[in-house]
Design goal:
This protein has about 450 residues and is α+β, with helices and mostly antiparallel strands. The protein folds into 3 domains: about 100 residues, no CATH class; about 160 residues, no CATH class; about 130 residues, Immunoglobulin-like, CATH 2.60.40. It is about 35% helix and about 20% strand. The protein contains 10 helices and 14 strands. The strands form 3 sheets. Strands 1-2-3-6-5-4 form a 6-stranded mixed β-sheet, covered by helices on one side. A 4-stranded antiparallel β-sheet has the order 7-12-9-8, with no helix packed on it. Strands 11-10-13-14 form a 4-stranded antiparallel β-sheet. The longest helix has about 30 residues.
Length: about 450
């Protein structure tokens, strides 16, 4: 055993092999430095400290071995071998530096700020609460107007009914590709259903309310949704028990296999709830008009992609925190850099200036100065980038959700963050530059409990 250990030491102490081992160790030490998200939050500083020392030791050990080996050969008057040792050392470490550069490019490390870049582009960094409504089709929160909606009967659904009876495969294709909120693919919960939207009527009398909407497909023999009152388009609403005035959850029968599930969460006032539910049904049906008018797979894709460009010249950033899932956020950027490149969104803590998240996506562009393109974040992120940047959060938000969280922790603990939007041109001769900077009050994402009271029942 002793001889084997001695042989192993001689094998490892051979200069070329030692250089390779030191370069490999140095690259491993670089991973937590350029990918800090791989470190546990509570141990980031000590991990970076030891990684820095490991990098220094690896380089010093390899350099020392090269000097000893070269000096030994020179004392033996073998200058060729001495210079060969120096050349091998330079070659191996050059390869290591090249691999480090590739890792740094993949990490998109934030550039150092100069005095001009550190100044915000907006006039003042006022902290806003993210409650804006978004424009894109991936938006899961949609404003509705319950005015002039009947409260005694369910509104008609001409578009949904026609699609259900004549083009059910296209309707199912649209529903299957719609964004999800949260939950694993196998969860049978309301939030994990594709096509789930939240319709928000205007707040009245200080009593907020919202309507959860999603589709449920039932084939012959499947049970009806538990706890839902089944109604027909144009039919009467279920009566509300005066002794227990709870607004029942509604399942609108579209005629064949699909039900439109609606759940009111807000005031128990019957007229307020039923007018909002009818407004939600009308809004959902209106969203299906393009597919009903032109029932083709191409229309399904256009509806899912939505409008990509809008008139304008000044970049705009919108952040939204859906009312139904606090601590989860959606974002839309409207910009036109005028050339190919990558949009980078750094989310930084205002107190520490530490980058909490990095979102990036390919830039949409044109040569029109008065055209802005919509970028959904993180919905537009390539899958390989998103899987790396989401980390363990991807177990909460599926790949086809437009939602993202900034960090884990207790909800209702608000803190200030800055969204810095940069553009990185594809032309390596051009420097990246900041497009805009916005500051918001956000809160940590508190993951929902693993157990839910009942399937198809949204939380209040």
């Amino acid at each position: 055993m002793r001889r084997g250990l001695v042989s192993l030491c001689r094998l490892l102490l051979y200069p070329t092999r030692l250089h390779i081992l030191c370069v490999a160790a140095a690259l491993l030490c670089c991973i937590p430095i350029i990918f800090p998200e791989t470190c546990p939050t509570d141990y980031t500083e000590p991990v970076l400290h030891y990684a820095g020392w490991g990098l220094l030791v690896a380089f010093s050990l390899s350099t020392l071995m090269m000097l000893i080996s070269a000096a030994t050969h020179m004392l033996r008057l073998s200058n060729t071998r001495a210079f060969s040792q120096l050349f091998k050392w330079l070659l191996i470490w050059s390869i290591g530096v090249g691999l480090y550069a590739l890792l740094a490019i993949a990490a998109d490390v934030a550039p150092p700020h100069n005095n001009e870049e550190s100044q915000p582009i907006q006039d003042s960094d006022i902290l806003y609460t993210p409650r804006d409504q978004l424009n894109g089709p991936a938006s899961l929160v949609i404003p509705i107007d319950p005015n002039d909606q009947p409260t005694d009967m369910v509104v008609q659904t001409p578009n949904l009914t026609q699609l259900e009876n004549e083009h059910e495969d296209l309707l199912q294709s649209y529903i299957d590709s719609s964004p999800r909120w949260s939950g694993q693919e196998g969860d049978d919960t309301f939030y994990s259903k594709p096509g789930h939207l939240v319709m928000v009527p205007p707040t009245t009398s200080g009593a907020p309310g919202l309507v959860h909407v999603c589709f449920r497909r039932l084939v012959e023999g499947d049970p009806l949704p538990q706890g839902y009152a089944v109604v027909q388009p144009g039919g009467a609403f279920p009566e509300v028990d005066e002794a227990n005035p709870i607004i029942p959850d509604i399942a609108v029968d579209l005629g064949r296999n699909h039900f439109l599930l609606l759940a009111w969460r807000g005031s128990s006032h019957r007229e307020t709830a039923y007018s909002a539910i009818n407004a939600a049904i009308s809004a959902t049906d209106a969203r299906m008009h393009p597919l009903c008018d032109t029932p083709t797979p191409e229309t399904v894709q256009r509806m899912l992609n939505g409008r990509e460009s809008y008139p304008g010249t000044t970049p705009e950033f919108r952040l939204s925190e859906p009312l139904a899932q606090e601590g989860a956020y959606q974002a839309e950027l409207y910009a036109n850099p005028g050339e190919p490149g990558v949009i980078l969104v750094y989310i930084k803590d205002l107190e520490t200036d530490k980058t909490l998240r990095l979102l990036n996506c390919p830039a949409r562009y044109s040569d029109k100065a008065d055209e802005l393109f919509r970028h959904d974040l993180p919905g537009s992120m390539p899958e390989w980038i998103r899987s790396r940047t989401e980390g363990h959060i991807s177990t909460i938000f599926p790949t086809n959700t437009p939602l993202f969280a900034i960090r884990h922790g207790q909800s209702h603990q608000y803190f200030g963050v800055a969204f810095e939007v940069w553009f990185k041109p594809s032309d390596v001769r051009k420097r990246r530059h900041m497009l805009l900077r916005r500051c918001y009050k956000v809160q940590a994402y508190d993951a929902p409990a693993p157990e839910t009271p009942a399937a198809d029942t949204p939380q209040t």
